[in-house]
Design a protein that fits this description.
By secondary structure, the protein is α+β, with helices and mostly antiparallel strands. It is 16% helix and 31% strand.
């Protein structure tokens, strides 16, 4: 699993991410900002702007303790979709 090494806000709720495997990705986080921990982050520009990398976890997070895991951010898992076994 690749860890996030840098995060930069591009616009609105979209961030540019750099990973320790050398890849980078631009991700619109709007779809991930739901539930009690993320409601205020989704609505408050100043709070969203406090996003940072948690170097111990390789995730991104906010001062309120909300985090988004690196496997979701890297595109290895889509938190908005139920897990499914691929059909062969």
């Amino acid at each position: 699993m690749a860890a996030v090494t840098a995060v930069e806000i591009v616009k609105d709720r979209t961030v540019a991410l750099t990973f320790d495997d050398g890849s980078s990705r631009v991700v619109d986080l709007a779809a991930y900002l739901w539930g009690p921990m993320f409601d205020s982050i989704a609505k408050d520009d100043e709070l969203f702007a406090q996003v940072s990398v948690d170097p111990a976890e390789g995730a991104i997070g906010w001062p309120n303790g909300a985090t988004i895991e690196p496997d979701v951010l890297h595109g290895d898992f889509d938190a908005t979709q139920p897990w499914r076994v691929p059909h062969h």
